[in-house]
Amino acid sequence: MRITGYRTLTTVHDWGRPVGDVNGTVAGGITEVPLVLVETDVGLTGVGLGGHADAGRVFPALDGQDPRATSALYDRMLAHVFKSGHGGATFATIGAFDMALWDLKAKAADEPLWRTLGAADRFVPAYASGLDYGVVDDELEDLYRPWAERGFTGAKVKGGTDVDRDLLRLQIVRDVLRRNSDQPAMMYDVNESWGRHQAMRLARQVEQGADLTWIEEPVRRWDAAGHRAVRSATGVAIASGENLTGLEQYRSLLDAEAVDVVQAGSVWGITHFLRVAVLALGRDLPVSPVAYDTNPVAHAAAAVPNHLATELQDLRAPVGLTLDQEVADGGLVLGDAPGLGIQVDEAAIGSSSTGRLWEAPAGPHVRAADAGLQIARRRGAEVR
Question: Does residue 104 sit in the same domain as residue 205?
């Protein structure tokens, strides 16, 4: 089997509500979902999800190769862009291609990817995460009730600029999940919105008002000293890593013993997650993949011994994608369809409306100019 070409598509996910975090929200609730389809000479097509802006530059590393050599081809893609670097959009493209290669590898074996990766169980423990920063307080209970009805005992709430409001919202979600557990696992994500000068004080304030499982990205993603300071100042676990592109970027955080839960972004692909999991395992730390549409990294999560919980963000699939998986019993139940279990309806995708919605200037991927100072400035305005 040889790789003969690729195609790119973009569909949309209709969340039916505002979606985002402290850095910005998409008020209309429709976000784009990029895909890459890798074609072979035996008629199999691999599906990968995530940004593919650098596909033309990365693909020559794959052209004519056997897609089943997933690990070797991952390193071949990294080597192909060695001189110009593999960060940002390039790393996302490598991740999308990598995902498609693993999909092909499992399809060639006519088995689901979780089985190809050596998992013994199709069930993946998970927590709910509604990207809920733009959802008003009065609607938060309705947002998380369907998750509670599916047995979930943990959730992550977005916040960062108003700790008092955040504590209220954490309590709302906690109360919804109490139907399944007396002590729901509550995660609190501020998406790098605190400066180091604020983080220790605010983390202690939140800790006093809520029983948290972890605080996520309290300071900038690379700030090992800042993460360590927050970890030392509180009894709450610190989670980070979703925005790190490459194992080398984890080194300072792990060497400083600055994180308790090692995260990996699903958009960076299967191989990246597997390697991050091994890196964390070597430090006796748990790993937790951050969500993305169709939950593709869940297959890999099922196969690693130190998986803690996978983030799930919505109960619906993007337009034109059919998934062989079920959200139930507080987690994700993976199916038996070969590969990732994703069927692509290109006709349905072709009729969907797309645009740069997720990456728009007001979207959640654009850091505010006053990030890290927002609380101080807001409180200063209140005093005046």
Answer: no
Q: Are both 254 and 126 inside the same structural domain?
A: yes
Burial-class residue 68 by CB neighbours within 10 Å (0-12, 13-18, 19+). Answer: middle
Indicate the pairing of strand 214-216 with strand 237-240.
Answer: parallel
pTM equals: 0.94
CA angle 86, 92, 361 (to 5 degrees): 110
Out of 64, 79, 112, a domain closes at 112
Tell me which amino acid residue 276 is: V
Tokens representing 199? 């983080």
Among 65-69, 161-165, 236-240, 348-352, where is mean pLDDT lowest?
348-352
CB neighbour class for 369 (10 Å; exposed up to 12, middle 13-18, buried from 19) = exposed
Q: Residue 382: its pLDDT value, please? A: 45
Q: Report the amino acid identity of residue 199.
A: A
Distance CA 327, CA 316 (A): 10
What Rg, from alpha-carbon coordinates, does the chain have? 20
Report in angstroms the alpha-carbon separations of 260 from 114, 186, 240, 272.
Answer: 26, 15, 8, 19
For the sheet with 30-40, list strands across it. Answer: 3-14, 30-40, 45-49
| Domain limits for position 289 | 114-340
Which distant-in-sequence residues (6+ apart) come within 8 Å of 112 by Cβ?
Answer: 106, 122, 299, 324, 334, 335, 336, 337, 338, 339, 341
pLDDT of residue 318: 97
